[in-house]
Amino acid sequence: MYNHLLQRIRINDPYLHYIDLSDCITIGIRELLDALKINTYITEIELSFNKIGDEGMKLLSEILKISTSITEINVSLSQIGYEEMKALVCILKVNTHITTFSVSLSQIEYEVMKVLTESLKVNTSINTLSLFGSEIGPEEMKLLADTLKFNTSITILSLPGNVIGEEECSILADALKVNTSITTIHLSQNVIGNNGMKKLAEALKVNTSIKYINLYENGIGDEGMKSLADALKVNISINRIYLHYNQIGVEGIKILVDALKFNVSIKIICLSGGKKAAKVLDCLNYMLEPKNRKQRIIEWMPWKNHHVCKELEPMFHDIVMTLLYLFFISQIFLRREKLKLRQKKMKILEL
Predict the structure, then answer these.
(1) Do residues 62 and 88 lie in contact, with contact meaning Cβ atoms separated by under 8 Å?
(2) CB of 182 closer than 8 Å to CB of 157
(3) CB-based contacts of 74: which residues, under 8 Å, 6+ apart?
(4) Burial of 36 by CB count in 10 Å (0-12 exposed, 13-18 middle, 19+ buried)?
(5) Does 127-312 match 1-119 at the fold level?
(6) d(C-alpha 70, C-alpha 1), whole Å
């Protein structure tokens, strides 16, 4: 399997665009990265959960300096040294082709975040930035927020699994009040709580670009829901919110439904709670005014005690069936392409 992949990279296989090197051994990674120097078709590299090592990271940095094809790279939770990580994020100053950059900074502190944010101030190609499990504190968040005030290319900001609390939310909120490019923000599995939600809600009242926000598992209760509901009454851009695995009870559900009477943009809201809250949710759904009834709250997700507020379109069933049909067609197409590729390899071997 490894030798086969290495050979495809070396011959510059035009059908190979993505390589998954997650959880690989160090020696194998070095050989594969070295082969990438002459490859012009691979666009995405997965290096998460890896023992890439300092030498491997140096080689990767050299490749990214000259590569014009690689657009997505993920080095989350890999064993990378301090200086090597600084060198990697510094590459973003000169590389104008990478659009998606995912990294875990858990082993890195303020100085690397400083280099990363300085690079993002001049980089205009990255549209997706993911910093998973980075333990972002107030100082690191300030660096990131200052960058987001000026950066106009990042549209997806993903900060899950960090220790983002009230103070960090306050700093981030200041940036979101002026940022006009971010459309999706992931803040799941942090410690936002009610006070942090209040800070973010203030930003959502004036932000007009965010369409999707994920606040999954953040300790948000009814008080936090009140702050969010107040923002939703005036916000006209958000159409999807994930709030499952928080601490929202009956009162919070009532507050949410009341806000939906004023909001006409929300299409999906994901929630979870006890049976009592679920019953209230179902009952209050039918109390919405007729003009808002298209935003019905229904039991939709397969997991227990999950509910979704979703716009029910008459052609929903047909849309689902169409998507399934397209999925099966794509699978047939992929099988045919694999068969063509296999036949091509056989001809090469025969030569």
Answers:
(1) no
(2) yes
(3) 45, 46, 47, 48, 100, 102, 103, 130
(4) buried
(5) yes
(6) 22
For 162, the enclosing helix (H) or strand (E) is none
Domain ranges, ordered by start, for the chain: 1-119, 127-312, 324-351
Beta-strand (E) ranges in the chain?
18-20, 44-46, 72-74, 100-103, 128-131, 156-158, 184-186, 212-214, 240-242, 268-272, 297-298, 306-310
Residue tagged 């609390």 (tokens): 165
Cα four-point dihedral sign 318, 324, 326, 328: negative
- The single residue listed with the structure tokens 């504190």 is 137
The residue to which tokens 């990042």 are assigned:
154
Token digits for 91?
Answer: 């590459």
Per-residue confidence in pLDDT tens, the chain, 351 aa: 567 878 888 888 888 888 877 766 555 667 777 788 888 888 988 877 766 666 777 778 888 888 888 999 888 766 677 777 788 888 888 888 999 998 876 555 788 889 999 999 999 999 999 998 888 889 999 999 999 999 999 999 999 988 899 999 999 999 999 999 999 999 999 999 999 999 999 999 999 999 999 999 999 999 999 999 999 999 999 999 998 889 888 888 889 888 888 888 888 888 875 555 555 566 555 445 454 444 444 333 433 433 444 443 444 445 555 666 566 566 666 766 766 776 676 667 666
For residue 57, count other CB atoms closer than 10 A to its CB. Answer: 24
CB contact at 8 A, 251 and 281: no
CATH T-level fold of 127-312: 3.80.10
Closest CA to 104 of 22, 176, 217: 22
The closest of 129, 128, 130, 79 to 108, measured between CA atoms, is 79
Query: How far is 201 from 199, CA to CA, in rounded Å?
Result: 5
Sheet strands side by side (includes 18-20): 18-20, 44-46, 72-74, 100-103, 128-131, 156-158, 184-186, 212-214, 240-242, 268-272, 306-310, 297-298
The domain at 1-119 falls in which architecture? Alpha-Beta Horseshoe (3.80)
Pairing label, strands 212-214, 268-272: unpaired
Contact 136, 144 (CB under 8 A): yes
